[in-house]
Amino acid sequence: MIRRSLATSVVVAMTLLVVVPRPAFSQSEAATTARSMFLKGRYNEAAERYSDLATSDPAAAIGMARCQIATGNREEAQTTLRAAAAQFPNSSAVLAELALQALARGDHAAAKERLDAALALNKDCLAAHCVEAELLRLSGELAEAQNAFGRFIGYYNRSRRIDNPDDLIFIGRGVAEHARWTRNSGQFHQLVNDIYPAALAREPNYWPAHLDSARLFLEKFNEADAADQVARGLAINPNAAELHAARAELAIMRFELAAAKRAIDRALEINPELLWAHQLQADWFLADLRLTEAITALQKALELNPRDEHTLGRLLAAYIALDRPGPLSPRAQRIIDEATARNAHCGNLYLSAAESFDRMRRFPLAAAYLRVADERMPQLISVRGRLGLDLMRLGEETEAARLLAESFAIDPFNVRVKNMLEVLDLLKDYATLETEHFLIKFDRGQDELLARYAARYLEGECFPELTQQLGFVPKDKTLIEIFSRSERTSGHGWFSARMVGLPFIGTVGACAGKMVALTSPTELPEKYDWALVLRHELVHVLNLQQSDFTVPHWLTEGLAVHLEGQPRPKKWTEVLISRAKDGGLFTLDTLTQGFIRPQSSDDWTLAYCQAELYVEYLLATYGPGAINELLAAYADRCTTPQALRRCFGVEQADFEAGYRRFVENIIEAARATVPRPKTPFAELQRQAEAAPNEPGSAAELALAWLDRGDKPQARRWALAAKRSNEKQPLAAYVLARLQIEIGDTEGAIALLESALDKENPHEELLALLAALRLNTADAAITDELYRLGDQRFGSSDRWVKGLVRVYLRSSDNAKLVPALRRWSELEPGNLAIHKKLAQLALLQENYPAAAISATRSMHLDVQDADVHAMLAAALAGQGKPTTAIEEYEVAIRLDSRQFDSYAALAKLQIRLGRKDEARLVVNRLRELAPDHVQLNQLDKILQP
Questions:
Q1: What is the SS3 assignment for 680?
Q2: Does the CA dihedral 18-22-25-29 come out positive or negative?
Q3: Burial (CB count <10 Å: 0-12, 13-18, 19+), residue 746
Q4: Helix (H) and strand (E) counts in the chain
Q5: Does position 8 have pLDDT exceeding 50, yes or no?
Q6: Strand-by-strand arrangement of the 478-483 sheet
Q7: pLDDT in tens, 747-793
Q8: Are 221 and 416 in contact (CB under 8 A)?
Q9: Residues 194-218: pLDDT tens digits?
Q10: What is the structure's pLDDT at 19?
Q11: Alpha carbons 151 and 707: distance in angstroms, whole number
C-alpha cells in the first residue's frame, strides 16, 4: 500500500548550528531567566540579561553571542566572543563557539585554529569535535571524517548520562552522518527514539531537538512528521528563524510556493543572515524558473559563506540553466574548478545542483549530476534514491529499479523510494503493448481494452497530428502507464506515487517529459475523456524534449490546451472577467505559480485560461510559426524577454501590453454572457422605498423577497411594480412563480404571456414561460419561445437544452441533431449526448457522423458495449466489415446480452464468406435469445 509517512531522519548540515547555550558556570536565577527568554525567542531581552553576566560567565557570553546571531548580527557576535576568549582564555566552550562560527562563515583556517585550541583544553569538547569532523569532510578526507563522526557514537555509549542538551544535539549530528555513511539505519531509530527525546527530557523547551528531528524527517520525505516537529518547535519559539526555514523547505517540497515564500520572508525578517533561508529563497525562485532572481539570492548567500557547497551547487545549476547549450560556460566551470580544488570529493556540490535541476524540472540534467555526485562521494545516502526517482520520470525503469532497490537497502525509511519500489512491483505484473512510437503498460485484467484503443488513437490520429504541428519527433518511444486499483490502493494512488512518490496529486494524467502516467477511468466515479488527456500530455512530451526541458510551464500548458481543440469553458471566461475587473490577472512572470501551486481553484482555472490566451495571442499576432520559433529560442536557453526579442523583435512589456488588449477584447465580447453581480438586499430596499412608484426597483425587491422565502412581501412589491407598469416583466415573473407555488400553472402562463415583449424579452420571464409551455401540447409555441431565447441570449446553454427537449418530445430528428451537436460542444464530456448523436446518425444512415460520435463516446467510456455496437454499425455502413466485426466482438464480450450485435456480426461474417464462424455466433444467439426475430433469416442464409 502506498504510504504517506515512515518514522525516520534527515541530514543536518553542520554549518547550520543553532544549538543554544547551557550555562556551565552559572546557575543563577538571572542566567536561568536569560536562557528561558532565549529558548522562547525573546532575543533582545535575553541578550540584556546575558550582558549583565558576560563578564563573569563564559556561558553567558556565548548566550549573548547566539542572541546576536539569531537576529542577524554576526559581527556583533564575533566581537562578543573574541572579548570572551580574551577574558576566559581557558574556556574550551568559547573557543569551540568561535570555531563553529568560523566554519559557518567558510573560514576553515580560523575554525581549525580555534578547534585545536579548544581540544587542547578539553579533549571531550563535542562542539570542537563537530567542527573537526566537518572540516575533514569539507577537505575531502572522507575516511578520517567517517572516523571523526564515529567518535560521537563512542562518546554516547561511554557516557552514563548526558545532562547538557547541546551535547546531545552534537552527538545526534555526528551519529546521523555516521549512520548515512555506514548505511546503519538502526542509528536513525536511535536518533528519533532516544537522543532527541532525551534532549527534550532534559529541557522541555529545547526547540533545536524539534528542528533536527524535522530535518531528519524531511530527508526521508516524511512530510507529516516533519510538519509536526516544526509545529512543536514553533509553539515553543515562534521567533526561531531556522524553524521557519524548515517550514519553507517543507512547503517547497510540496510545491506550495506561496506558503514557502511567507515562511522564507519570516525567517529573513528574524535573521537576515541565515544562510539556509537565502538558499531556500533561491530554491523558491528556481522552482518558479526565475533564474536571475535565484542567482541574486545565491550571491547574497555566498557573502555569508563563499565556500558552501550547497550554495555553489545551486548557483552552478542556475548558470547552466541560463547559459547556452554546449560546453560549460566559464562562470559555471569556475565553480566546479574551485570547489574540486578545495575538495576532490565535493559530492554535495553536484547533489545540490541536481536537486536544483529537479526543481526546475530539468530531469535529464538532474540525473546526470546525481551520477557525478555518486562518483565523487559515494557516502551520500540520498543520491541513488534520487537518481532512481529521476530515472523513473525519464521512463528508464530498469536502471531505476536497481538504484531504488539499492537505496532502500541502505535507507529503508525514505518514503518516496519505498512507494516507488511498490509501484515497480505493481508494474512487474502489468502487460505491455508496444507500437511504433509507444510502450503502453497496463493491468491486463482491467485495462486491456483501454490500452488497445489508446494505442489505436495515439498512432492513428494523435501522434501524426501533433508531431506535424510541432515539427518534432522524439527519438525514443514514449512510455505510457495506466494505473488501476490494486490491493488497498486506488488507481489514482498508484498514479500519484508513480509521478511523485507520494499518495496524491490533483489530476488524472501527468507527464515527466519522456513518460506519461494515467489513472484508469474504469474505477473513477466520473468518467473523463482519456483520449483528450493523452493528447494533452503528449504535447508536454514533445514540448519538453524539443526544448531540452526548458519550455516555460505556461507555454507548454497553454499549447496543450490549445491543441486539445475544445471550446473555452464558460467557467474560464467567468473567472477571467472577474479577475480582470479586480486587477488580478497573471503576467508571464507570475503565471507559472497559478499552475504549480494555485492558492485557489480559480487560480488554476485562470492559469489555464490565460496560458491558452497567450498561445492564441502569439498565433494571431505573429503567425502560425510563432510557437515553434519560441520553442527553439527556449531550447537555446533564452529567457522569456530574450526569446521575445529574438523571435518577434518585441520587449516583454510591449508584448504584455498587446496581450492585455487582446484579452480585453475577448472580455468585452463575453461580458454580456456573465451575470451581473446582485445588488445587496439592503440597497434594494433603500432604492424601492425611496421611489415606490419606480416599477423596476419594486420588482427587483420583490424577487429578492422571493429568494428569501418571504412570499407575502414578494407579492406586495410585485403588485406595486405591476400597478406602475402593467407589463413589468420581472414583476410578472415573480407573480407567476407565486402562482406556480399554489398549483395554478395556467394562471402563471397567462401572467408571463401578457408581459412578454418579443422585441425585447426579459430572459428569466422567457425561460420560465418556455419551461411551462414545454409541458403543454403545443410544440410549435415552445419551439418559438426557445428559439427566441437562443437568438437573444445564446451565451446561456438553457436554450439549446430546451430545444433538445422540445425536439425529443416531438420526435423531430432533423432539428434534434444540430441542437444536440451544439449541446455536445458545450459539454464535450457528456457521454449521453454523444451516444444519442451516434444513434440518430445511424437512423439517418449518416455513417461517417455516427462513427465520429461513437468514437467520442468511446473516449469517455471504452467499456460501454452499446458504443462499440454503434461504432460497428457505422463502420459496416462505410464498407469496413473487418473492423466492424472487431467492434461487434468487443460489444458482445462486454455485454453478452447484445443480441442484435450477434445477428449483425453473423451477417458480416457471412458477407466475408466466413460461414463457419457465423454458425457459431448464431448458435450462441439461439442459446441466449431463442426468440430473436433474425434467427430464422440467418438460418436460411446459412443452410448448406
A1: coil
A2: positive
A3: exposed
A4: 51, 5
A5: no
A6: 431-434, 438-442, 478-483, 515-519, 509-511
A7: 999 999 999 999 999 999 999 999 999 887 678 999 999 999 999 98
A8: yes
A9: 999 999 999 999 999 999 999 999 9
A10: 44
A11: 76
- Distance, in Å, from the CA atom of 380 to the CA atom of 400, rounded to the nearest integer, reads 17
CATH code given to domain 829-942? 1.25.40.10
Neighbours of 940 (CB within 10 A): 8
Residue 160 has pLDDT above 80, yes or no: no
Three-class SS string for 847-905?
HHHHHHHHHHHHHHCCCCHHHHHHHHHHHHHCCCHHHHHHHHHHHHHHCCCCHHHHHHH
CB neighbour class for 782 (10 Å; exposed up to 12, middle 13-18, buried from 19): buried
Greatest CA separation for the chain: 118
Grid cell, residue 397, equals 525503469
DSSP conformation class of 251: H
At residue 374, what are phi and psi to the nearest 5 degrees?
-65, -40
* CB 870, CB 838: distance < 8 Å: yes
Classify burial at 328, counting beta carbons within 10 Å of its beta carbon; exposed 0-12, middle 13-18, buried 19 or more: middle
Report d(CA 449, CA 809) in Å as an integer. Answer: 36
HEC states along 895-921?
CCCCHHHHHHHHHHHHHCCCHHHHHHH
Q: How confident is the model at residue 901 (pLDDT cuts 50, 70, 90)?
A: very high
The pTM of this model reads 0.84
Cell of 558: 497553454
CB 878 within 8 A of CB 847: yes
Specify the pLDDT at position 242. 97
| Distance, CA of 311 to chain centre | 26
Give the separation between CA 845 and CA 848, rounded to whole angstroms.
9
Q: Which of 628, 575, 625, 621 is nearest to 601 (CA)?
A: 575
Cell of 473: 519527433
Do domains 681-825 and 829-942 share one topology? The answer is yes
Decide if 495 contacts 512 (C-beta within 8 A).
Answer: no
Amino acid letter, residue 415:
V
Grid coordinates of 74:
554576526
Q: What is the dihedral of CA 892, 894, 899, 905, to 10 degrees?
A: -20
Instruction: Give the CATH fold of the 29-253 domain.
Output: 1.25.40
pLDDT at 14 over 60: no
Domain ranges of the chain: 29-253, 429-536, 551-671, 681-825, 829-942
Q: Is 662 helix (H, G, I), strand (E, B) or coil?
A: helix
Q: Give 564-607 pLDDT, tens digit per residue.
A: 998 888 889 989 998 998 888 999 988 887 877 677 788 889 99
Residue the block writes with cell 525578517: 269
pLDDT > 70 in the chain, percent: 96
pLDDT at residue 159, as a whole number = 81
Residue 518: φ, ψ to 5°: -140, 135
SS (H, E, C) 46-90: HHHHHHHHCCCCHHHHHHHHHHHHHCCCHHHHHHHHHHHHHHCCC
If we measure between CA atoms, which residue out of 667, 664, 704, 662 comes closest to residue 683? 704
Contact 738, 714 (CB under 8 A): yes
pLDDT digits (tens, 9 = 90+) for 523-548: 788 889 999 999 999 999 999 999 99
What would the CATH number be for the domain defined by 681-825?
A: 1.25.40.10
Query: How is residue 895 written as a grid cell?
Result: 455485454
The CA distance from 522 to 860, in Å, is 10
25 pLDDT band, cuts 50/70/90, is very low
Q: How large is the average pLDDT for residues 401-419?
A: 92
Query: Which residue carries 497496463 as its cell?
Result: 442
- What integer best gives the mean pLDDT of the chain? 91
CA 694 to CA 79: how far, in whole Å?
80
| Residues 178/153, Cβ–Cβ less than 8 Å | yes
Q: Which residue, among 388, 411, 298, has the nearest Cα to 349 in the 3D structure?
A: 298
What band does 265 get if pLDDT is binned at 50, 70 and 90?
very high
Distance CA 205, CA 201 (A): 9
Please tell me the class of the 429-536 domain: alpha beta
Whole-angstrom distance, CA of residue 308 vs CA of residue 389? 26
Is pLDDT larger for residue 127 or for residue 187?
A: 127
